[in-house]
Specification:
Elements lengths: L1 H36 L3 H4 L14 H7 L4 H33 L5 H11 L2 H14 L6 H25 L4 H8 L4 H12 L1 H17 L2 H6 L7 H6 L2 E2 L2 E2 L1 H21 L1 H10 L4
Antiparallel strand pairs: 1-2
């Protein structure tokens, strides 16, 4: 018994140590970016590096808030990411339900959808840019929202399929026996049950749209510039403004952090629900 207790304690200690290493690995870059944003320029380039500045300064944040494109870029990111997420989850839920319940497309359609996620985005960005240029759609909200929706649709369908697969079809059949149509049963019975999974999928989709850079820097302009594009402008031929770029990174991550904290319960429930059938 004593040997078994020692092995159990060693296993618990080993798991704790591994989790602590992962915690340090993922939080260290975030901490470094935040600390860089409050350092003086001389401390940002110091060798050996200065981890904790003796005199924190917030000039980078003040300069960022005074930037003429900051508010516009932040609102553009919220509008584009939010609208693209809403469209993708709405149509993705309908598509995933049809594929799972009615076997639309058999096994070929889900595999083709998965194939679209294997294509590097840089391969399709050139024809999209040429098409948008010839139709005069560059620097429009419609173009970037449509691109983000198409880019994440396959992922949303694959994630939501697992949530719909975990539900027994008897629930909808019982509702239709009571007089509900298929669409009414989907709206009133299925969606409330899988709402944690939809919330988790929507959050993941929103994060991808919020952080996407390649399509944003290629298809947007002065009117539809997003936060990642604005952050990239702080790198110029004159050099790299580390403080301003770090401040922009911290501010850009705040909406994602707040949404994750707010939807944490739905995120955990949704991810675990989709793993059970």
């Amino acid at each position: 018994m004593k040997a078994k207790a020692i092995r159990r304690n060693l296993g618990t200690g080993l798991r704790t140590a591994v989790l602590c290493l992962f915690l340090v690995f993922f939080t260290l870059p975030i901490l470094w970016v935040f600390l860089t944003s409050i350092k003086r320029p001389v401390d940002q380039m110091a060798i050996p590096p200065v981890w904790f500045p003796e005199n924190p300064v917030f000039d980078a944040y003040l300069e960022l808030f005074r930037h003429p494109d900051f508010v516009t870029s932040l609102l553009n990111s919220l509008l584009i990411a939010g609208t693209a997420t809403l469209i993708t989850v709405l149509f993705g839920a309908l598509a995933a339900y049809g594929i799972e319940r009615f076997r639309v497309g058999g096994t070929l359609l889900p595999n083709l959808l998965l194939l679209t996620r294997m294509i590097p985005p840089v391969v399709v960005i050139v024809p999209i840019f040429l098409m948008a240029f010839r139709t005069q759609m560059l620097d429009t909200y419609f173009l970037i929202i449509a691109a983000y929706s198409a880019l994440n649709m396959a992922l949303v369908i694959w994630l939501l399929r697992s949530f719909f697969a975990s539900l027994p079809a008897d629930m909808e059949e019982a509702a239709m026996i009571d007089g509900c149509s298929r669409l009414h049963a989907f709206w009133r019975i299925v969606l409330p049950v899988v709402m944690p999974g939809i919330a988790a999928t929507a959050l993941i989709c929103f994060i991808f749209c919020w952080n996407e850079f390649l399509f944003a820097v290629t298809l947007t302009g002065q009117e539809t510039k997003t936060m990642p594009v604005l952050t990239s402008t702080f790198v110029s031929q004159k050099g790299l403004d580390r403080g301003l770029m770090s401040a922009s990174g911290v501010v850009s991550s705040l909406p994602i952090v707040l949404l994750t904290v707010f939807f944490q319960r739905y995120l955990v429930n949704g991810l675990t629900q989709g793993s059970l059938k």
